[in-house]
Amino acid sequence: MTDKKSTHQRGTYKPHPNKGQPYTISETQFWCQRLAKTTIRALHILGVAVSSAGFMFAVDKALWINWWVLAMMSGVTMMSLEIYRSKLWLIQLKGILTFVKLFMLLSIIWLPAHQAHIYITVILLSVFIAHGPAGLRHYSIWHRKRIDEKKQLNG
């Protein structure tokens, strides 16, 4: 019995170098992506921190509105990058709770008397999403278990 790989008529069989292995990037690409993501996150935190004056202490809107726009734009950018990287984000608690936070912020329009409390709750929820255990963040509400990789979707 002969091996098909070694008797191929046009030469020897060579599998694709990355076949069956995770997508790899160069160290330079990794650092550029990591620094870009960290910069976006830092801008988001800065925008949230400065705009909190408007929600917490009724500071004149003209003083904090641009920071609020920065917080929202950087937040949407981070959310878009997460969804682009993995559609699983949409059914994991980290994604679901992000949409809950957005809804809570939107509710300030109808509940302005509670805006400080809502804002504080959103910030606390953000800490649990960002720094909670992976089992919590990666929990899929659809699968009712932790989902990390696409190969686990069949469960």
TrEMBL record:
Tagged with keyword Transmembrane helix: yes
Keywords: Membrane, Transmembrane, Transmembrane helix
Span list, region Disordered: 1-21
Ranges annotated as spanning the membrane: 42-59, 65-84, 91-110, 116-136
Compositional bias ranges of the Basic residues kind: 7-17
Protein name (Swiss-Prot/TrEMBL): Uncharacterized protein
Originating species: Photobacterium angustum
